[in-house]
Amino acid sequence: MADKTKDAELAAIRAAYRTDGLQDRQRASFEVLVLDDSRFDQNQIKRACGKTGLPVTTRLTSDMDEFSQALDEKAYDVILIDYMLPKGNGLTAQRLVNNHAMNFGAAVVMISSEMRTDVAVASMKKGSMDCLNKDALDPEKLREIMMASAKIFSEASRHWIGELLAQQRVQIAQDVAKVVRDEMEFGRFVDTIDKRIIDMLASKGFTEPENWNVSYLFDADEPLKFR
Q1: Between the CA of residue 43 and those of 16, 50, 111, 127, what are the distances in Å?
Q2: What is the pLDDT of residues 202-213, one digit of tens each?
Q3: C-alpha closest to that of 35 among 99, 78, 72
Q4: How far is CA 116 from CA 38, 92, 113, in A?
Q5: Predicted TM-score of the model (pTM)
């Protein structure tokens, strides 16, 4: 059951990397998402973001429904989450980010009018970058957070891309082994093994197989020849 769950997660992440979500990371401005039910605090944060000296686009949300919808719309660099919410709390919202195929790599910062130690510890254990009092969100601190977010996304991307490549290598090895078994079973090993393997790789997205030089992959001696 655990393997099926992991496969589903990897499939969702792979799909996200094939969408505009990854391209959004190459945009010219920082995308910031704020979850806070206080309009006053929302506007304070938005003004502070505008004073960082960086190009910033700030999306404001007031509840979990708006927040969830915003997550589905685009990829964000920084997500600021107020712990105290009318329904649920910031840790619930953080879990939503961690499990989101397009925004799992965003830098999450838990905020509160008065940050509690237990909340900060719980949030940091779940992977938040920082936990801050709202009055600490001055332009200088927000600029620091935005610059650090690029590194966080890069590290998360490297991890998941590594997972996908490892999974792909295992699948290709299994497919190659199946091709070899089939060819040996039907006595066609010598004539068609190269072509079938290349066709199988091409079917997985490795394009332009006609330009490949794969001779180095095979033994120069005749296959199955006894020495």
Answers
A1: 31, 11, 15, 26
A2: 666 655 545 545
A3: 78
A4: 19, 16, 9
A5: 0.59
